[in-house]
Design a protein that fits this description.
alpha+beta; eight-stranded antiparallel barrel; elongated; 61% strand; 17% helix; 228 residues
Amino acid sequence: MICLSRIRSRRGVGRNCTVAMVIVAAMTAQAAAADMPESVLRGSYTEPTPSSYARWDGVSLGAQFGYSNLTADFADVSAATPFPKVSTNSAQYGGFLGYNAQWDELVLGFEGAYNRANSLSATGVNGALSSTFKLVDYATLRARAGYAFGQFLPYAFFGAAVGRVNYQTPSASRDNGYTAGFTTGLGIDVAILPNVFVRAEYEYALFAPIGGVRASVNTARAGVGIRF
């Protein structure tokens, strides 16, 4: 009887030890599973990689400052006494508002801008005759196409321009006259914060003749903008 009780006692201890080991193993496996990423439990796990380019889609708004060269061609003012071309330089300032859509690295959009010159006024002289032409300000509407890489967005643009001018020639004079034209150029935007960027660009604008004067403007400018 004593021997059977000892055997039963040992069997009971063995069972208790086995049960305890199973409980400990289950708790350990459960804790390890809790520390694993959910995607590992569901299947394969791939560490996400950051995009190689910034986002440029959305509405953008900003201010810009530049330096312009105006060329006024007075050749059509008087057929009898042709006037020469005259160039003048001036600082300018303005603002822009645009919208971009983005597909991976490709960025397409449009942008409206207003620019006002400090003093883009040219005077042509031929003997006793003189003519003056002043570009007061002008607005543009441009289509843009760019390619994003890193924090940079180089772009090209093409669009329409409308200028407000004052002119005086031997045969006519007018203040606040309007002339249409086109604009084209190249630029680059650089993201310095997720929603803030700086800009550098070159723009060429050519206007239709008004009062016998044809004008063109070359501008180098810089700007700063925010994206919504």
